[in-house]
TrEMBL record:
Domain of life: Bacteria
GO MF term list: pyridoxal phosphate binding; transaminase activity
Alphabetized InterPro entries for the sequence: Aminotransferase_I/II_large, NHTrfase_class1_PyrdxlP-BS, PyrdxlP-dep_Trfase, PyrdxlP-dep_Trfase_major
Name of the protein: Aminotransferase
UniProt-listed NCBIfam families: PRK06836.1 (NF005305)
Gene3D superfamilies given in the database record: Type I PLP-dependent aspartate aminotransferase-like (Major domain)
Family designation: Belongs to the class-I pyridoxal-phosphate-dependent aminotransferase family.
Keyword Transferase on entry: yes
Keywords: Aminotransferase, Transferase
């Protein structure tokens, strides 16, 4: 009998959809050859990092100053945070100082730092379905309780439902826009209203309710859409983001938090975030990557390819007769399934198409398709989608 915690066994079961599809994909690729499998299961950017990343990395590798690979302040190098403060100030329309920024091990590390810093046992975190699978784990890691609120039929904020879910125990409302898995971007008007709701509820309960914006896809948008700034929404805003998608560097684990410059008791919050970064064992974000991204503030990977892939994928789904809400950003489609989502994934697998059932994201009756694959793979899946739809609707 293994000594693995019962809770971890239950977690492994809960998180098994993406893993199952991933394992299925590996098996099928070994059996049929990688070019014969249409794998849309994993959101791992396949676009290369921008050429300047390699130039900067080569230059940094030459630097042999003593201490350059040593420990540093837990929040990160001040000059790196300064560079980010400048750029984010322009993006968010507020004036950040380096002290408002904390460098993290990706957005995932940043979210764990936030929850460690803010949550007492039993505090509630509102998440919106469908959601990024890992949220439940991150919240549980720090003794919080996830409270799931549905979005509307087009995956927009359901403000009434959020308002009804707010209690004296609500510590955080976590949003993700552009969204994984739907690609939705929340409108500026709905976000303003959300901020008003949170501030009003906080006053009523005598608490602080923080709006946490998880936004690693901010720079991947389609059809001229824009992602509204979050800082004007409420002074209790914290942004968690990363370079995983912007520079196509998810394996390098480099991200950041930005705290509203006018947040009440900001020093205490930033102190707690910084301590959390240390005692969660991250200690600090990777030194080399911090120095690299400081020089890559207005640089991006060739993320325009995702827009072309979206066109190809929409055509494939239209021809197969699938319904979906056109994503405004990120690199996912979340179409409806005409039958049970797991059953539909089985039909797709028979066509060597790998998708993840929507129930893995808290919304059955859908599938998530990640378009981190070549356009040819997307186009090549067309007949398979048609046959799966025909089998499902016969
Ligand atoms: N949040 C969302 C919505 C994501 O989709 C991901 C990764 O796919 C993350 C956070 C984690 O990003 P990072 O690699 O920056 O930790």
């Amino acid at each position: 009998m293994s000594g693995v915690a019962k809770k971890m066994k239950a977690f492994a079961e809960k998180s098994s959809w993406i893993r199952k599809m991933f394992e299925e994909g590996a098996k099928m690729k070994a059996e049929f050859g990688p070019d014969k499998v249409f794998d849309f299961s994993i959101g791992n950017p396949d676009v290369p990092p921008p050429p300047k990343f390699y130039t900067v990395l080569r230059e940094l590798a030459q630097d042999e100053q003593p201490g350059i690979h040593g420990y540093m302040p837990n929040a990160g190098y001040p000059f790196v945070r300064e560079a980010l403060a400048g750029r984010l100030g322009g993006e968010q329309g507020v004036s950040f100082s380096a002290n408002d920024i904390l460098m993290t091990c990706g957005a995932a590390g940043g979210l764990n730092v936030i929850f460690k810093a803010l949550l007492d046992p039993g505090d509630e975190v509102i998440i919106l379905a469908p959601f990024f699978v890992e949220y439940h784990f991150y919240i549980d890691n720090h003794g919080g309780v996830a409270k799931v609120v549905a979005t509307d039929s087009e995956f927009n904020l359901d403000l009434k439902a959020i308002e009804a879910a707010l209690t004296a125990k609500t510590k955080v409302v976590l949003i993700n826009s552009p969204n994984n898995p739907t690609g939705q971007i929340y409108s500026a008007a709905s976000l303003r209203e959300l901020g008003r709701l949170l501030d009003t509820a906080g006053e009523r309960f005598g608490t602080s309710i923080y709006l946490v914006s998880d936004e690693p896809y901010r720079n991947i948008v389609f059809d001229g859409n824009e992602v509204p700034a979050l800082m004007p929404v409420t002074t209790n805003t914290i942004i968690a983001s990363s370079y995983s998608k912007e520079l196509s560097l998810p394996g390098e684990r480099i991200g950041y938090l930005a705290v509203h410059p006018e947040m009440a008791e900001k020093e205490a919050v930033i102190g707690a975030l910084t301590l959390a970064n240390r005692i969660l064992g991250f200690v600090n974000a990777p030194a080399l990557m911090q120095r690299a991204v400081a020089q890559l503030q207005n640089v991006s990977a060739e993320n325009s390819v995702y827009a072309r892939r979206l066109e190809v994928f929409c055509k494939v789904l239209d021809e197969a007769g699938m319904s979906y809400v056109r994503p405004k950003g990120a690199f996912y489609l979340f179409p409806q399934t005409p039958i049970d989502d797991v059953e539909f994934c089985r039909l797709l697998t028979a066509e060597k198409i790998l998708a993840v059932p929507g129930r893995g994201f808290g919304l059955p009756g859908h599938i998530r398709l990640a378009f981190c694959v070549d356009e040819k793979v997307i186009a090549g899946s067309s007949e398979g989608f048609k046959r799966a739809m025909a089998a499902a609707t016969q």
